[in-house]
Structures are given as C-alpha cells and as structure tokens.
C-alpha cells in the first residue's frame, strides 16, 4: 500500500458511502427514500471514518485536496507530495461515484428529477448566491481544517512523573475527524450541501457529465468553481491561523 493507493482507496470509500446515502435517500423506489438529512450527514461522517481507517496508516488519510494544501501551508506536509495526493483523491472520488451509479443504476432510471440525480454526484446551493455560497464552503472547511491541526494522539500520564507515554489509538483515531464532518453537515450544510472537499464535488460532477444517465440534465458547471475554491480558501485561512498561533 503506497500513499497514492491509500488516498485513492480511502477517497473511493468516502464517495461510495457519501454518494450512496444520497442516492438511497433521494432516488426513486429505494428502501431508504425520504430518510432525510440526519441519514445523509451521518453516513457522510461514517464514510469519512472508514476512509480514514483504511488510508490513515499509509498516507495520513487526507482524502481531500483542501486538507493536503492546508497541511502544506501550515508546514506539516511537504509541498512536493501535494500533487500526487490530489491526483489520487480525484481518481478515487471518480471511481466511488462510478460505483454508486452502478449500484443504483435501476433507481437512476426510475427517477425523473434531474436535481435529485445531480445531488447524488455533487453539491448545489439551496439559494444561489455565489458570494454567500463561497463563504459557506470556506467557513465549513475552515472548521474542518482547524480541528484537523489540533487532533493529537493519545497519551498516558506516568505515575509520579511529569512525562507522558504516547499510545496508539488505532482505528479509533479516525473518530475525531468523523465527528467533525458530522457536526459541520448538521450545522453548516444547509445552504450548499457542504462539499468542504474539492475532490468530493469536482470528480463526481465530471462523472455525472460523462455517464449515460437518462434525464440527468446539466451538471451546473457555472457553480462548480465554488465547492473547489471555497474549501481551498477556508483551509488556507485555517492553516495560516494555526501557523500564527
């Protein structure tokens, strides 16, 4: 397992679960149709969890170009590795979106709403206001990135000593990131659908444009720059604030 493969597989699992829950809730004739926002935000958070579990030991489990760029700006990740991470994340997200389409292919054909079909692949604003939509994505990603900088490993305090002993948290170490994504979705996800991840939005949007989906409508490319640049801006601000502090 190389870092490239880890980022590809981790991001694929993230999109498979995240896109999968949107398909289950929004597409026609599914068992989970109409389950609602709580189901969507919970599955996205748990999708992050399993992605981090798989990729964490090998790549650090960024699974998000904004995270890779933010860590590089903050001085905790080498710039020379950013490009390969971003490519792996984009490929993994595209593969995850393809798998969602294959699993739910019959249900895509049973859905007449092009917005519901598009929502399986990428985000769109509830109210289109580019400046506010951009700010929403930036603020959400700022919260994610700032928390990521402060996630630490577990420690045991040694008796009768001022020193501590680091302990490995294993897969449990993925929980803080999952909880952070969950609360961002519940609190800040309403206006835009909380992409907070350029790969999560751009690569599946490309798959939406390429796949032969009946009645899918347009891919809303005029909005596509917001869930790409907004998260990168938010991660950059979080990284600079972390660096200053």
Task: Explain the overall architecture.
With 245 residues, this protein is mainly α. The protein has a single domain, classed as Glycerol uptake facilitator protein (Up-down Bundle), CATH 1.20.1080. It is built from ten helices and two strands. It has helices spanning 3-26, 37-59, 65-73, 82-103, 105-109, 114-121, 130-150, 175-188, 198-210, 226-244; strands at residues 154-157, 164-167. The chain has a two-stranded antiparallel ribbon. β1 and β2 (164-167) form a beta hairpin. The longest helix is centred in the N-terminal third of the chain and has 24 residues, at 3-26. It is globular, with a radius of gyration of 18 Å. The model has no long low-confidence stretch (mean pLDDT 93). Belongs to the MIP/aquaporin (TC 1.A.8) family. Keywords: Membrane, Transmembrane, Transmembrane helix, Transport. InterPro entries: Aquaporin-like, MIP, MIP/Aquaporin, MIP_CS. It is a multi-pass membrane protein. The chain crosses the membrane at residues 6-27, 34-55, 86-104, 131-152, 164-184, 224-244.
Task: Compute the CA-based radius of gyration.
Answer: 18 Å
Largest pleated sheet: 2 strands, antiparallel
Assign the CATH superfamily. Answer: Glycerol uptake facilitator protein
Quick check: average pLDDT? 93
Estimate what percentage of residues fall within beta strands. Answer: under 5%
Beta strands, count = 2
Which regions are unreliable across 5 or more consecutive residues at pLDDT < 50? none
What is CATH's topology name?
A: Glycerol uptake facilitator protein
Number of domains as seen in the coordinates: 1
């Amino acid at each position: 397992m190389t870092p490239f493969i880890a980022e590809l597989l981790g991001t694929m699992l993230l999109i498979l679960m995240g896109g999968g829950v949107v398909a289950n809730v929004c597409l026609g004739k599914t068992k989970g149709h109409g389950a609602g926002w709580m189901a969507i935000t919970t599955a996205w958070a748990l999708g992050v969890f399993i992605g981090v579990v798989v990729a964490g030991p090998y790549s650090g489990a960024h699974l998000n170009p904004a995270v890779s760029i933010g860590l590089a700006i903050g001085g905790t990740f080498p710039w020379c590795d950013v490009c390969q991470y971003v490519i792996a994340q984009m490929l993994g997200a595209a593969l995850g979106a393809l798998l969602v389409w294959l699993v739910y292919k019959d249900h895509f054909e049973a859905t007449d709403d092009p917005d519901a079909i598009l929502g399986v692949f990428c985000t769109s604003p509830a109210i289109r206001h580019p400046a506010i939509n951009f700010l929403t994505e930036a603020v959400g990603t700022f919260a994610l990135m700032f928390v990521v900088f402060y996630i630490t490993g577990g420690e045991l305090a040694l008796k009768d000593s001022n020193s501590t002993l680091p302990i490995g948290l294993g897969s449990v170490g993925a929980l803080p990131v999952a909880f952070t994504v969950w609360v961002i979705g519940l609190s800040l996800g309403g206006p835009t659908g909380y992409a907070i991840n350029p790969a999560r939005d751009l690569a599946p949007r490309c798959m939406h444009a390429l796949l032969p989906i009946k009645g899918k409508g347009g891919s809303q490319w005029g909005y596509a720059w917001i869930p790409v640049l907004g998260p990168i801006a938010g991660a950059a601000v979080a990284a600079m604030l972390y660096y200053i502090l």
